[in-house]
Amino acid sequence: MSSSRRRAQTAVEAMFIIAVILTGVALIVPSYLRSSTVSTMDVYVRDAASSACDYLNEGVFVIDSMHQPLNVVLTYTNGSYAFFSFKGINVVENGGEVGVTVYIGTGVSFTPTQLSVVEDKIKEYILRYISSRPNVRREGDYLYMGGKRFTITVNVGDNL
């Protein structure tokens, strides 16, 4: 076998190996980026919910637009220690939409009307908190990141 023929065969083999590697990258990277977007939002939601619980447990009003929804919740506790705690989240992905349910426990019993307002106000805080991130866009009650639409739901209760 001549030297030029060996070089040609080596070049073809190298191109084949490069093609296999690039095909693998093309198949793996998009799915990794999709799951990375959901994982990132998971971290953002956990951080926002924990921050909301910390603020509510402090019981001190901060007058700014970010904390305004939580100030409403503080008025429902009547100055008593409510002990809000982040219990967890559930993430359900369906195509380009992701539903995130946040569970927050509390030591206070609210009337059904108050409970609805508390859940809405904590949700509003979470939406404001997350939408302040540079890679997240908010439209109404939805957050958009990485081509996905996220819906946030908050459940508050003493038996969570």
Short description:
The chain is α+β, with helices and mostly antiparallel strands and 160 residues long.
Q: What this model shows, in words?
A:
The chain is of the alpha+beta class. It has one domain (3-157). The chain has 3 helices and 5 strands. The protein has helices spanning 3-58, 68-76, 112-131, and strands at residues 85-94, 97-105, 137-139, 142-145, 148-157. Strands 1-2-5-4-3 form a 5-stranded mixed sheet. Helix 1 packs across helix 3 (112-131). The mean pLDDT is 85.
Please describe the structure with a list of short key phrases separated by commas or semicolons.
160 residues, alpha+beta, 5-stranded mixed sheet, 3 helices, 5 strands, 53% helix, 22% strand, rod-shaped
Termini separation: 75 Å
Overall residue-averaged pLDDT value = 85
Kindly give the count of domains.
Answer: 1
Instruction: Return residue spans where pLDDT drops below 50 for at least 5 consecutive residues.
Output: none
Number of strands: 5
Helix content: 40-55%
Structure annotation, total helices: 3
Major pleated sheet:
5 strands, mixed
The shape is rod-shaped
The run of helices and strands is HHEEHEEE
- Please state roughly what percent of the residues sit in beta strands, choosing from under 5%, 5-15%, 15-25%, 25-35%, 35-45% or over 45%: 15-25%
Instruction: Output the radius of gyration.
Output: 24 Å
Given helix and strand content, the structural type is: alpha+beta
Strand order of the largest sheet: 1-2-5-4-3
